[in-house]
Amino acid sequence: MGVLYLMSPGSSAKKVGPRIVVEKNSEVVGRLPVRSLDGVVVGRNSDLTTNAVFELLDLKIPICYIDDFGKIAGILCNEKQSSARFFRQSEIFQKPEKQVEFSREIIREKIRNQRNLLKRYGKTSDKEKLDGIAKKLAHTLESLKNLQTTEEIRGAEGIASKNYFGAFPLLIASPDIKWKGRSQHPAKDPINSLLNYAYAFLEREVRISAAIYGMEARIGFFHSNNGRKDSLIFDLMEFFRQPVADRFVLSLLNKKMIHPENFQKNSEDCKLNFEGRNIFCTRYEEYMSKEYKEYDGKNPREMINERVKKFSEYLNR
């Protein structure tokens, strides 16, 4: 089982019998049993035939379309939304005290994950400085229990993230790629470009899991429900940014799997080039398929599915 990436310009895939045939510039480069796929990711300059789309949807295999920055343009998924969960999420959203409860749960786990990642790197990096930042995170974590509004919790999350990203220079061993602080959209440097790309891939994983468990993506608790974004997806992503996305990006950098020449930069933004995207996708699938003791012997994708399922059950208490 795995994910098929159609990212190269001129690449295409079509259904031929029980298989997906992959071509590059009209030459066949691979044949895969449709049922062996967990998902398909399609880039801007690639093509997936309509016949293949219908077969994948019939088998409940999600299709994700992404742009050159890794940002999701859309997802096709034969999802089953649960009306019971929809009404439950709506009910919680209309009760401020419940919103605060769920928001506190989400950010409590996020800050714990931030501290755990710093502790992990404290074994090889500047332990004293990382311990100092971890203590600041512990203080913010302790303060959550006294916060009474979602806005206050958002403020605490902002403080924690500022301290956490302040530790990044201590976590990156690559001498060729330097951390210059968090710049989200657009990314101004290679590390921020990698983080944005990894978060976009994480969003795909979370969207698929949320669809599997019939959750309403538009009704979240911590992130603003303003109609411009699917708030629940961004809520759920907070559980996995550090243990999945950040850990993967740091691994790419510290194991020197990616280099400055794998990026293209102009006065406005920085993004992975074609070769860089290929490296990212290949390493990402290796990472997401590997089992880790930190995830109780599961791979990251299994861990994400299990945690999203647990949260969906938490909604229905």
Shape: globular
Distance between the termini: 34 Å
N to C succession of SSEs: EEEEEEHEEHHHHHHHHEEHH
Biggest sheet layout = 4 strands, mixed
Order of strands in the sheet with most strands:
1-5-7-8
- Runs with pLDDT <50, length 5+? none
Helix percentage: 40-55%
Structural class: alpha/beta
Tally the helices.
11
Strand content: 5-15%
The overall pLDDT average reads 87
* Global Rg: 20 Å
Give a count of the beta strands, DSSP E runs of length 2 or more: 10
Question: Any key phrases for this structure?
Answer:
317 residues; alpha/beta; 4-stranded mixed sheet; 11 helices; 10 strands; 50% helix
Describe the structure.
This protein has 317 residues and is α/β, with parallel strands linked by helices. It is built from 11 helices and 10 strands. It has helices at residues 50-58, 83-93, 96-121, 127-143, 150-166, 168-171, 190-212, 231-237, 241-254, 274-289, 300-315; strands at residues 2-6, 11-16, 19-24, 27-33, 37-42, 47-48, 63-66, 72-76, 263-265, 270-272. Strands 1-5-7-8 form a 4-stranded mixed β-sheet. Strands 4-3-2-6 form a 4-stranded mixed β-sheet. Helix 3 (96-121) packs parallel to helix 5, helix 4 (127-143) runs antiparallel to helix 5 and helix 7 (190-212) crosses helix 8 (231-237). 36% of the residues are buried. The model has no long low-confidence stretch (mean pLDDT 87).
